[in-house]
Specification:
There is one protein chain. The protein is α+β, with helices and mostly antiparallel strands. It is 50% helix and 16% strand. The chain has a domain of 62 residues: 3-Layer(aba) Sandwich (YefM-like fold). The chain has a three-stranded mixed β-sheet. A hairpin with a 2-residue loop joins β2 and β3.
């Protein structure tokens, strides 16, 4: 759980808050009117967050790429070669 502090108090105690984050391993949430405004986190925490974001973005790209591949059409004669009697048309293919 993060330590919460109003922005007006955070201004006055910035050096202390930085020490709490860096040396105490705390996370500080600065609030305005009781609502979270910004968070103070260590550089190591920020690196972890950025690495997670990059991993999630890469995972999303892989899923998008796989989804966009779609079905492939077999070459003429391949169904006979492998003993496949029926053909089920995929999206966008005609049954003829």
């Amino acid at each position: 759980m993060a330590y919460e502090i109003p922005v007006t108090q955070a201004r006055a105690e910035l050096a202390d808050l930085i020490n709490r984050v860096v040396y105490g391993g705390e996370r500080v949430v600065v609030t305005r009117h009781g609502k979270p405004l910004v968070a103070l986190v260590s550089a190591a925490d920020l690196e972890r967050l950025e690495r997670l974001d990059a991993e999630e973005a890469a995972e999303g790209q892989v899923i998008s790429s796989v989804s966009s591949i779609g079905s492939t059409v077999s070459a003429p004669g391949e169904r006979q070669r492998f003993g496949i009697a029926a053909h089920h048309p995929g999206q966008g293919e005609s049954g003829a």
